[in-house]
Specification:
By secondary structure, the chain is α/β, with parallel strands linked by helices. The chain is built from 13 helices and six strands. Strands 3-2-1-4-6-5 form a six-stranded mixed beta sheet, with helices on both faces. β5 and β6 form a beta hairpin. α9 packs across α10 and α9 packs across α12. The longest helix has 15 residues. The relative contact order is 0.16. It binds guanosine-5',3'-tetraphosphate. Guanosine-5',3'-tetraphosphate (G4P) binds next to α7. The site of guanosine-5',3'-tetraphosphate has 20 residues, from α7.
Length: about 290
């Protein structure tokens, strides 16, 4: 399964981000709390090397709380300010304003000393991969329900400045990935959370690997959700779920593709429960050590 690809429009978006980042004081990067390592774009570390950094672990409501705690400590130890949220809840998103002010405390004090408080609001870039929840976060934060981009990766918007308060401006950027995903596991996890278009992926293979992961890590979820017994053979397991979910073609044949879609939808919509796909100690997601 080779999912190292890079949609053309992302090259332009990356170039634009490179220019815009120079104008910003702080970068607010949204990560998917279910894959806080694989959803972290290593390009942003390079482009934002001298900027203040805030990480939002988004969609915490769908992630395993104990694993989220471990990721929070992991990124804090690396010097990031870390916030955790369900972006659909406005009250949670509003915490970002204070975090931005705190991260830029030195700049604010320097400006105050120079007497230029109102002239230079803090500029914060909001970045993240497709489908991580950026538009949900921004719409919640500014108190709007419009400008929805939908659940399809690759849907982009133009970079847009949003005035949050008299001292903070946000720059919304399109969701981008990076040209080489680094490992098959990273590609697989990005596919599982819906950040890579399904139609270019092997759904069957992805589902089998996901089932392997569940057997090893969230066995009870599998048993409860699909009432299954055969956990030793993944093909048999998929077949059992296919029958349990009554995925049958017209001629009576089992419709395994439909079952794969159902299983992935159950995960993506949170119906399977709170599942984290990776832990900080997983070595296959350590971009820095790979480079
Ligand atoms: P993007 O701009 O980064 O591409 O992502 P977008 O905001 O469009 O969000 C992608 C999907 O993730 C949306 O679901 C959105 O509701 C959901 N989402 C965003 N943040 C959170 C969160 O913190 N928790 C949960 N549980 N979901 C979140 P959708 O299915 O496309 O839309 P909808 O049916 O929810 O309206």
């Amino acid at each position: 399964m080779d999912i190292n690809w890079y949609p053309g429009h992302m090259t332009g978006a990356r170039r634009k981000m490179e220019e815009d980042i120079k104008l910003c004081d702080v970068v607010v990067e949204l990560l998917d709390a279910r894959i806080p390592g694989s959803s972290k774009n290593p390009d942003i570390d390079t482009l934002a090397a001298n900027k203040k950094r805030i990480i939002i672990l988004n969609k915490v409501d769908m992630a395993d709380p104990a694993v989220t705690e471990a990721w929070t400590e992991y990124y804090k130890a690396k010097g990031f300010t870390v916030l955790r949220m369900d972006s659909r809840v406005r009250k949670q998103t509003l915490k970002v304003t204070d975090a931005v002010r705190m991260a830029c405390k030195d700049k604010i004090e320097r400006d105050k000393r120079r007497g230029i408080v109102a002239v230079r609001p803090i500029k914060a870039m909001v970045a993240g991969i497709p489908n991580v929840g950026k538009s949900t976060f921004i719409n919640s934060y500014v108190g709007k329900t419009t400008a929805k981009t939908g659940n399809k990766p690759g849907v982009t918007r133009g970079n847009q400045w949003i005035r949050i308060s008299k001292d903070v401006n946000l720059l919304d950027t399109p969701g981008i990935l990076w040209p080489k995903l680094g490992s098959e596991e990273i590609g697989l996890r990005l596919a599982l959370i819906g950040s890579i278009n399904d139609n270019i992926l092997e759904l069957h293979e992805i589902t089998l690997k996901f089932l392997d992961f569940l057997v090893d890590n969230y066995c009870n979820i599998l048993k409860d959700r699909y009432i299954i017994e055969k956990l030793d053979n993944r093909e048999a397991l998929l077949e059992e779920i296919t029958l349990y979910k009554k995925c049958i073609k017209k001629g009576g044949e089992p419709d395994v593709d439909k079952a794969c879609k159902l299983i992935l939808d159950d995960f993506r919509s949170g119906k399977l429960g709170r599942i984290s796909l990776e832990k900080p100690e997983d070595t296959d997601i350590n971009h820095e050590e790979k480079d």
